[in-house]
């Protein structure tokens, strides 16, 4: 048991170290706030002693002038205590908000730096819980819990001194209840911590279910899975309820127990005062001492109640620490190589890669992309086409072999500079909540309105912009029904243009669009390709016949490559894929 307590104390201290960098930024304000708390509590604590003198000296001696002076002094103490409490509470609350702001920004930036593999195994709801709910719990502890604990500790110190001043032996009797108070508090601490861990985990599951339900609302409705989805949320919600019930049970026993200890101690002191101290204590002493007894147990109860906030915050900090300690596998080297500024070459040499060790995707891939060349990647599902794109963008790092960009190993380049020279247009375009102009610039203030207008003009998309109600100021967003899949692709092409990349990647960018939009996309693509290395992933082989080179992937290697005509004449895998698609189109046309 002693080892367990020592372990938990060490864990608390370790977790609290996370807060140190944030709190150290405002040391002067923290010192000022603590000083005001101490001053305020000192004023409150000496009030019973002032009243004691008023009773035993002024009232007993019928000194009205002295009583008035003492009353004015009490009023001054109340004013100082009030002003100190208001200022300190404001400062601490503001510091809590500042810490929340800084911690949330740091966690958000941390999430953006994490490798894709982290998101492959972590749900969106879990990450969302870390950045929102967990940070808010820590903020609540700093803004409310810290003020309460510091105030309570200061009060206890002053009250103990005042009680010892009035009657040392009665003070000792009162203090005998403190060890019992501490033992019960430590006994409940573990169950409370475990309960809050379970609550946080259940809350994460609820967020995950909600994100899935909102993001996949269309599919859930169309496939008639509304009831099953409700049942999944009910399971997560019930787990949250059960976890919180354990906490409620703990406090249902804990707080009444503490109250009874307080009342029992008061009764014992009252009994001893009546039978053993009546002749030694004056009326003012007795009044002041019993006022101090009530004041003594109040901060102890307040600190006990703060265990709710404290344990919740510790459970949250524990989860935040796990996120902070998550390794950042994709890092910039200390002295990165610089890209030359020209259109780069890209070269794979014997590259091996697997998302899961037992399931390799690339198996010794040798592949090169020359500057200014348009290369199409084709192959069956699982051949490694999208994986190649991920590796070029350094979303993942290769396992073995070499990947060179502009002659430098990709690991020796700054990922931000690398990705800044590449524009990837995916099949499913993600739209942000904002205007068309903001979606094209992705809220980058360095991209001017003139550059956006130039992109629309060069790509020949004036008709598309004009079809929207308010042109560039039209509000669009994720899942907005007013934009078709093809129109979303047009937005993505504009994003690529304003970025002015050296390498252009299209991952099924012209799939699932109508013939009119496909014509607009073909024109935009022709403009975008000029002077750039272009990599195209396409299942519709009719869209890549004009590529400089077509690479057919099979089992993570280049199976064959050449121009469309060369591959057709070879009669290999590409020829079979092309014939199969041509036959499928003929059958569809007959229907």
Task: Give the topology, please.
Layout: H1 2-16, H2 20-23, H3 27-59, H4 64-113, H5 116-121, H6 124-166, H7 168-175, H8 177-215, H9 217-222, H10 226-277, H11 283-324, E1 346-356, E2 359-369, E3 374-379, H12 385-392, E4 400-405, E5 408-409, H13 415-420, E6 422-425, E7 434-435, H14 436-441, H15 449-458, H16 462-466, E8 475-476, H17 485-499, E9 503-507, H18 515-529, E10 533-537, E11 549-554, E12 557-562, H19 564-570, H20 573-590
Helix pairs in contact: 3-4, 3-6, 3-11, 4-6, 6-7, 6-8, 6-11, 8-10, 8-11, 10-11, 15-17, 17-18
Distinctive features:
about 600 residues, alpha/beta, ABC transporter transmembrane region fold, six-stranded mixed beta sheet, four-stranded antiparallel beta sheet, 12 strands, elongated, disordered N terminus, disordered C terminus
